Structures are given as C-alpha cells and as structure tokens.
Amino acid sequence: MTLPSSPAAPQSSLFTPKLVTVLREGYTLARFRADAVAGLTVAVVALPLSMAIAIASGTSPDRGLVTAIIGGFIISALGGSRFQIGGPAGAFIVLVAATIVRHGYDGFLLATIMAGLVLILVGALRLGTYIKFIPHPVTVGFTSGIAIIIFASQIRDLLGLTLAGPEPAALIPKLEALGQSINTINPAAAILSVSAIALIVGLRRIRPNWPGFLIAVVLAAAATTLLGLPIETIGTRFGAIPDGLPAPRLPDISLDTVIAVMPDALAMALLGGIESLLSAVVADTMTGRRHRSNCELVAQGIANVAAALFGGLVATGTIARTATNIRAGATSPVSGILHSVFLFLFLLFAASLIAYVPLAVLAAVLAVVCWNMAERHVFVQILRQSRGEALVLLATFLVTILHDLAMGIAVGVVMGSFLFMHRMADLVSVSTGGASIAAGSADVPDSEVEAPTYSASENGDILVYQISGPLFFGAASTIGAVLERIGVFPKAVVLDLSRVPLADSTAALSLKLAVDTIRSNGAAVVVCGARPEVRHILKQEGVKPPIVSYASDVDRARTLARRKIGVPVAPEPVS
Exposed e or buried b for every residue in 87-124, given b needs 16+ CB within 10 A? Predict the structure, then answer.
C-alpha cells in the first residue's frame, strides 16, 4: 500500500534521481538480469559510435569512450529518466570540432565545464520547461543541417582521399577541397566503406536486433588486417589507445579564456539541454513513463563537468541508444550504469584491438547516423504545412550549414518567436454592433473598414466594443488603431474585456492612449469583464478611475454609462 505524499513531497521529488525511485520500489534480481542484458546491448552499439563521434570531432577515439563511461554513468545514476543513455552525441560534432579549432583542447574542456555549470544552474532554477519551447522547425532544421555537415566531414575517410593541405572547416570550402582531391581516391577504402554501409542497412532490415555497427566494425578490422589492405586505421593515425581512464585534471583557466569560450559554452548548454530532454521525451513516449526534466538537466550538467575533468567530450542523452536500451528490455537506470561499466571493461582489457579498426568503417557508421539524423520526411512535411514554419526551418537549416550551429538556433528561435507573435496577434479582434474587426485590419485603409454601428435602444449614445484574444504587445498598436477609428463619437464607450485572457504593459499603454483619444472627444469610458490580473496591468498603466470606470459585466457597464451621460436609469430591484 502506498501512503499519500505530503504537499511538500512533489517539490522535493523534482530532483530525486530515478535510480533512487527505482530502489525504493524494490529492485529484484530478475530486473537486474534484464538491465544487464540491455546494458550489454547498448554498450555494443555505443562502442563504435563513441569512437566514430570522437574522431569526427577532431580528437582521438578514446575520448569518446571516456565520455560514454564517465558521462553515461552519471547521467544514469543521477538523471530524471529511467531509461536515458548518456554519452557523446553526433549533434555535437560540429560544435566540438569548431571549439577545439578556435580555443585548443584545453579551451574546449573549459567550455564543457562551463556548459555543465550552466545546465546545473538551469535545472536548479527549474527552467528546464522553457527549453521545451524551442519550435519544432528549429530542432528539425539544425539537426538536418548538422547531419549534412557531419556527412561532409566523413567523405575524406569514406573514400580514403589525400588532401593537399588541411581540410577546411566551412562546408563550401570543404566540398571544394574534397572535389579537387577526388583523383586520390583509395579504392580499397571506398569499397570497404560502401560494403559496411550495405551490411549495416541490410542487418537493420533482416536482423534488427543484431548489433550492426559492431559487426561491421569487427568484420572490416578483420578484413583489413588479414588481407593487408592499404587503408588508414586508428592505430596508424592515433597510435596506441590507453587501456584505462586518464587521471582527472583541471584545464588551464584564465579570465580571458573564460570570456573567449563563453559563447561556445552557452551553445553547448543549449544544445545539450534540447538533446537530452528530447531524448527523455522519446523514452516517455515509448514506455508511458514521465521524466523529471530539471533533475535530468542537473545530472547532465554534473556529467559534463566530470567528463571534461577526465578529458572527455560533451555528454548528453542520446535518442538512438536510449531507444535501443528500451527495446532491449531495460527496466531502470541500472542498465545505463551497466552500459558504462561494460565499456570500461572493454577499454581495460581490449584497448589494443581498437588500433586495427579502419577509419573508413567508422566513417561508414557515421554516414548511417547522418542519414537517420536528417529527418527527411519531417523536413518535407514542415515545408508543405505552413509557409511561416517553412521559412523558420529553411533559415535555421541554411544558417547552420553555412555559418554555425549557435547562430542557426538563434535565428530559428527569433523567427519562430515572431511567427508565434504574428499568429497570436491574428487571434485578437474587436466586435461592435455585430461587426467583427480583426486587429490586423489596422494596416487596411480606413475607407475599407466598416464603420461601427450603435444600438438603437441607446439612441446612439453608447457604443460597446468587445475585445477578444490576448492583449499583448504584438496586438497593441492594431487594437489602438481600431479603437481610434470611431467616426462619430457617442457619449459613452463600453470596453468589454471579458474575452481577454491576458494583457501586458505595452498593450495596456496602447489602450490608455486610445482611451485618452475617446475622452478627448467628450465620451465617457467604462471597462467591464476584466479579469483581476488584466485589471491590475491596466491600472498600472493609468487605465483607472477617474479616467475610466469599471464594471463586472456589460449590463452593469451600460447602466453605469447611462448614469454618466445623464440618461434616466430604472432603480435596481431590491431582493
């Protein structure tokens, strides 16, 4: 029997890791067996992916494994999702590579630590909900853009090209340099990478439960070694892989470096928050559970600080590995913890085998990841749905691939916000005498707007305007313009705000200016039906007695208006 929790319990449980919740429920040996199988399955998938992401990010493959071990362990142990699997993610490849180029590896580690601290702060302040407000076209746009950039960065290893100089970071110069080096293609590398892609795709269709990535990597390494193929491997490019975790250390820190890496740290924090919460939402959808977003962000922050201290990359929740974890039968965060333990054991006892892995097959693994990241069907669907959302999508996509990820997100969010405000403003309308005037009609010439009419019973003395929709800054000027179009002013104007759910100071000030115009033409103003919070905002901006009078509803407002203009009013019946 479960006792009802106290009112304070929900607040305190916001930051309780799901691991603690699971242990309180009662953790059995049967659940441990299921989590062990799921953890091993995910580790098999994460092994080649972690190395491939690290190499594509411009660093050595062991850094990816360190990230999956340290970051993955902490995300599962402290996170707010039962099934989240943490580690290096493909979405960060571009950002990590650019940060390393700009600030060096120590600068990147400092940026990762700062990003972790930002995530801890965001979670502690319970701001995780706001990250979910990133418009869907923005997430699709930058994810698709990242997929294109990552794929372009893998062409060199996919084809075994030899470039005359360093590979450019920007997309267009990169493609130009690769095109100029196409005559240096290595047939063995090209055949191996194409064969690996075909094997991965084929196994996914025929045997979806088999670890296609690992099978492709193992077979490619065996073929390269046994046949003596002239293909670059991890060993030939990076040398021996350490057979354990490095000692933790702080990167060099100075005020100048902190200021320099701050934009990159903020971009990492934003992308990390989006990626991890999106992954947690996917897990919730698959299992019917609910994650704790702010607890998840705090765990992500701690994981990034710890991973950076051990020299790792950015750690976040990963959608593909989390989905694999669920399909493999995971029941709790223990599976994610065991996935990190299995990776550590592999690094401890089989690090020497990593040197035989061809870079071409890791490039093939990332090519498949890019294909899955691109969200092609969703991309096309958004293009067909709405012109406004299509513009947000394309702007985010193009800025991401032609400039950088952070700017792409910023442009997309700003455009998405303006699109939202435009749609909200379109919901605002003003009705009078049976005619409805949309707020957007402020841009229409006065001659094309129907003049307001009066109720015959009022003899043209009182005009009632009903404003509907959110009265915010996006609709402020248009509302004011509509109200100021009164041709022949009556003796009194009633403003019915009963259908206004909210108001802000900008709209209230605009309404105050309209009221001043009405009063300057000799008309009294009565406001009715305003909610307490709306009335509070209006009064703060000067829409208060004696400038206006307030009434609870239209009937009482009409009675009050009659009294103000000297029209006889029948006494209210005494109950």
Answer: bbbbbbbbbbbbbbeebeebbbbbbbbbbbbbbbebbe
